[in-house]
Amino acid sequence: MKRRNFIKNASLTALGVTVFGIMDSYSKSTGFFNNLKVNGKRIETRIFELAKFGLDEKGHGTRVAYTKADIEGRAWFIELMKKAGLDPTIDTAGNIIGKRKGKNNSLKPICFGSHIDMVPDGGNYDGTLGSIAALEVMEILNENNMITEHPLELIIFSNEEGGTIGSKSMVGDITTEGLKQKSQSGLSMGEGIKAIGGNPENIQTYIRKKRDIHAWLELHIEQGGILEKENIQIGVVEGIVGIVHWEVTIEGFANHAGATQMNMRQDALLAASKFIIAVNEVITSVKGTQVGTVGKIAVQPGAYNVIPGKVIMGLEIRDLSAEKIEMLFKQIENRAAAIAKESKTKINFARQANESKPALTDKKLQQTIKTTAKALGFTTKLMQSGAGHDTQHIGAIAPAAMIFIPSIGGISHSPKEFSKAVDMENGANVLLQTILSIDKTS
Ligand SMILES: [Zn+2]
Known about the structure:
The chain is built from 13 helices and 13 strands. By secondary structure, the protein is an alpha/beta fold. Strand 1 and strand 2 form a beta hairpin.
């Protein structure tokens, strides 16, 4: 702990003021009313141990959900949960759930965890950090014979990377159609869930409802480069951005590239170029952290000597505010109408069905994480998550929040993904003390 924080905490104690409850066992080493600290070395060792599952001959990680590597990685994790006395079970959606009793088991559980599946050629920290740190919290409590008021649950969600399937199922958001969808493993979602010990036919029987969970916490790597760049230790996640996709079709007229005069053309690709620039201008014209991307494009017919007659593009907008996404899209539509008129083309937008709504995290939990991190001597920043997480679904039924730690170089979903051991330890300590702080709330 930094001296500055110690002085602040000490003076708060002297005044009898505390946000962490009882003052009987105030610790100078942690700044809290307990002496608990996670074992950073054990977290790092386990990150490397889990990374061995799914390594191909080139040393790349391929622990994709429902594959042999995923099944073996899960078995390794389940074994550790058993050793920690968590009596792990697998729910109908293939989520692994380990429970630790509290003093008052009529209270709703405090739940925390993440996922251990990865994208093909993925990294060793995405999801695994939150999972291993959650187990670490349980073990530290065991080793210190500490029983919380609330029961605790460690949850490892199944197939996060293939569409947050486990968490969606837990809140009842998975459809029969969704279960038929093909997963990255080659199996359908339903077949995959069966392969990891779930029960897709009865997936609805394990749905959690509003107020079934006291609070949900997920520690995760940032996956972007903000914390590292600004030299901040802990990110307090304000929310997970909403994502909307549109297929944009521009119709011009395919004609001879030699014989058609420049002023006679209806060039769909030229219109598309102007459209892409317009998207960038609209997105950057207002303050905020919104992002907009044209990430794919197909040109027809696609030849040296033919004026492009048709272009199909993919437009994506992300932001924490659904209204802002709509407002930006309206402006893009207006710009598109002007481009279509000027280029004598037609521009159509087809909104895609796969959109996800912005999910704000719980304000009180944000505050608790921030206060906890500060008391541990860490710098913090309120930030959004540009990537999707299981937390966005659990947030629909329970107060939910996320803790971020720096990703070196902002690289993720890549073998180059890396977070420092000290940052992982810091994040896990924030997770531990946040859980103990929430435990004092009813
Ligand atoms: Zn993740």
